[in-house]
Amino acid sequence: MVLKRTKGYQDIDENPGSLTPHNGVELDENNTVMPQEIEMASVSVVPDDTFTVTQAVNALGFGWFQVKLSLSTGLCWMADSMEMTILSILSPALHCDWHISRYQQALTTTIVFLGMMLSSTFWGNLSDRYGRKHALTLCAMLLFYYGLLSSVAPSFMWILLLRGLVGFAIGCTPQSVTLYAEFLPTKQRAKCVVLLDCFWALGACFEVALALVVMPTLGWHWLLALSTGPLLAFALICPWLPESARYHVASGQTEKALETLEKIAKDNGKPMLLGRLVVDDAISAPPHRGRFKDLLVPSLRRTSLLLWFIWMACAFCYYGLVLMTTELFETSSVVCSKNPIILQNVDTCAADCKQLQTTDYMDLLWTTLAEFPGIFFTIAIIEKFGRKKTMAVEFIAFAVCCCFLVVCTEKRAFLTIMLFFARGIIAGVFQAAYVYTPEVYPTSLRAVGVGSCSAMARLGAMVTPYVAQVLLKTSISFSTSIYAVAAILAAVGCLILPIETTGKELQENVSSTQGPGSSAVRNK
Questions:
Q1: Domain range summary for the chain, segments of one domain joined by +
Q2: How many CB atoms lie within 10 A of CB 305?
Q3: According to CATH, what is the number of the domain 55-245+287-512?
Q4: What's the pLDDT tens digit per position in 29-50?
Q5: How far apart are CA 188 and CA 483, in angstroms?
Q6: Contact 409, 415 (CB under 8 A)
Q7: Is the pTM of this model over 0.85?
Q8: Which of 244, 277, 333, 465 sits 20 to 30 Å CA-CA off 10?
C-alpha cells in the first residue's frame, strides 16, 4: 500500500480491490467509478488508514501549541478569580460607605452567583452548538463591559444589577477549561488542568495585593475598574484562540478539524498522522448537540446527579471559606474574648463599620497562597489514587479542618494556619472536579455538562454568604459545622460515582457511553 501526503495528512493512493488512476477517480475491479460517500463506510475495512482526534492529540503530544493555550485560558481563569476574590473585599467596603446591613452584604455576593447559575447552562449550550471560541469571546467582552460599569455604580441597586450581569458573563469561564482539556494528551491532561489553577491562585493573590495598594487611597470604585485589566487582555487575544478540533468533528466540520490538528503538528514540531480523520467509533454526532436533557439519559443520570451535588458542596465550602476568612478574624476577636461583646442585630444598618486593615489583607493573602501547595498536592495524588478517591480524601481533610475552626479562640495565628490548610485542600477538590467532569462527558455534551455542574456550584455559592457572613456573627461553631457536614456528604458522593476516568480517553459520542457496570470512557 502506498500513502501520499495531501494537505498535511495522509490519503490512500492504492487500495486492494480498487485502482486509482492519475486523475484521482477510484475504480473497482470492473473499472466502475466508486462514489466518495463509501469512504467512511470503508473505515472498518482498513482501520489502520484512519485516525481520530483523540489519537491525533495523543500522538502530537504536549508542546508549544498547548503552552500558548495554557497562557490564554490561564488569563481567563485569572480574570475570573479576581472577580470572585473582590467579593470578600467589596462587601465590607459597601458596608462602611453606604451603611448596608449584613443581609445586604450577603446579597451583594449572592447576586453574582445567581447570575452565574442562571447563565452556566446557557453558555454550555451555546458552546456545544456554536463552538467554545465564540462563547468565550462574547463572555470576555460582556465581562469587561459590565465590570467597568460596576466601578461607577451610583447606588446599591445599581451595584446589584451590574454585579448580577458580571455574574451572568462569568458563567462562561468554565468553558475555557473545556477548550483546554480537549487539546491535552491523555497522560498530561490531569496535571495540566490542575496546574491551570495556578492562574486562579495568581489572580486571587494579585487582587488582594491590588486591594492593599488601592483601597486605602482610591477606594473600591478604582479597585473594580483596575480589576478589569486581565479581562481586557483576554478579550483582545480571543480572536487568536483555536476552536476545539473535537467540536469541529462532532459538528461535521472535518476540514476545519484537520486544519487545527495540522497547526498543532506545526507548533509542536511533530509530523501529521498518516490516514484519514474519522469520527471516533465511526459513529456520527447526534443530530441534537448540547441538550440539557441528554445529561439525564440512563447511562449518565447517576453520574450527572452526583456531580451536581459534589459541585454544589464544593462551591459552598470554597466560597464560604473565602468569605469567612476576614469575618472569622473580626468575629472571633469579639465573641471569643474573655469579655465578649454582644453584637448588634445584623438586620439593622450597621454603625459598627470596620474597614479592612493591612493585617487583614496580609492574612487574606497568606490564606490565598495556600492554593499553590493545594494544587501540587492534588497533582501528586490524582493519577496515583484516581479522581474519585482524590476528591473524597480532600473533602474529608477539609471537614477535619472545619472541626478545628469550631474551637472558639482569640489566637489569630491558629486561625490563619487552619484557614491556610482548609483553603489549600478545598482548592484541590475544585480542580480535581474540573479534571473529572470534562473527562466523563462525551464531546457532544461536554460543554453543557460542565456548564450544568457550574450552575449547581453557583447554587451552593448563593447560599454560602448567609452562613459565612450572617450566621457566623452569632455562632462560629454552628456555621463551621455546616461546612464540615457538607464536605462529608460530598465525600460519600465522590466514592459512589459510577465511573473512574483515570487513564482513559475523552469519549466522542453519547452512544459510546456504557452503563454503571462498565467504563463509560473507552480505554484506547
A1: 3-50, 55-245+287-512
A2: 14
A3: 1.20.1250.20
A4: 455 444 443 333 333 333 557 7
A5: 33
A6: yes
A7: no
A8: 244
